[in-house]
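Aim 2 progress update. The chain analyzed this quarter is reproduced below.
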Amino acid sequence: MAATTATTTYENSPAWRKQMIFLPAELHLTAETMPSESTWTYKGHAVHVDSCGDSASSPVTLIMLHGVGTNARQQSLLVGAPLARLHNFHSLALDCPGYGATKVAPKAKVIYSDWVDLVSDFVDDQAASNGGKPIVLYGLSAGGMLAYQVAARNKNVKGVVGMTFLDQRVQEVRDTTAHDLAGSRVGVPLAAMVKNTLLGGTKLPMALTSKMWALVNNKPALKAFLSDRSSAGNWVAIRFLADYMSYAPAVEPELFDTCPILLTQPAEDKWTPLRLSELFLKRITKVPVQTVMLDGAGHYPLEQPGIDQLHAAIAAFVKDTVLAGK
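Predicted structure tokens:
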């Protein structure tokens, strides 16, 4: 089904380097901390994978998932490389089709459900090859719910960490995260109506369908992110957006019993406030659910002490909850 080669790359991409300068200096990548890059071939897609840390000595495999305004390299910068340095964690950051350095299969009509399928199959591949180490999913922004949706159908997942858990089927979530109420109340139903027509292939900028202006709380940094067509500056097909806004997980939260969950909520998130994740997480009662606030941090955290708190929270969750429960 899948093979790993070395083709897609961020090596010659200037965008992530322009974004990196807004992170604390200790998070800047060097020749020694640069992620290794590979390509996972899946259903015709050349899926880019950023790898940080040593897989042999790490106690865990951390699979990192971006949302609709970020990519794999931004995950490696924020989480993957620091956790490799601080805690010897091995991480694999995926670029889902349409984002980052992944090359989409010719003529593929990518929808959100394809992301869930892809990540679940990647989890299975890792479970078959990582020597039995627990697999933890980390999702930034919409990647948090993607992590839940994968765990809802895949028992190989032993822990889920998310920056947000947004159930876009809920009108309050749509209203709060969409660019405006017209998009939420009119645009979403229209997208559902045309998703299977020729109009379904029409691409829209994510900056006009969502509150992408709230991705980071630093205006110069926001400019660097929005100019990146592989992340915040991306354009996405209507059919993808329609599927994303209506996707139903294999298991609803009331019945979810796969693994423990950690919410790492930026305290100064102007896009997805805590209450939106709480709407979903309060329905989960069969597994432990923890929340850690990241002080001073925006949606994609550039700020301390929130970044240090993020690293500490993930490490504690892995060591004290996931590994302790093996």
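The chain has a mean pLDDT of 96. Residues 112-129 form the longest helix (18 residues). These observations will guide the mutagenesis experiments scheduled for the next reporting period.
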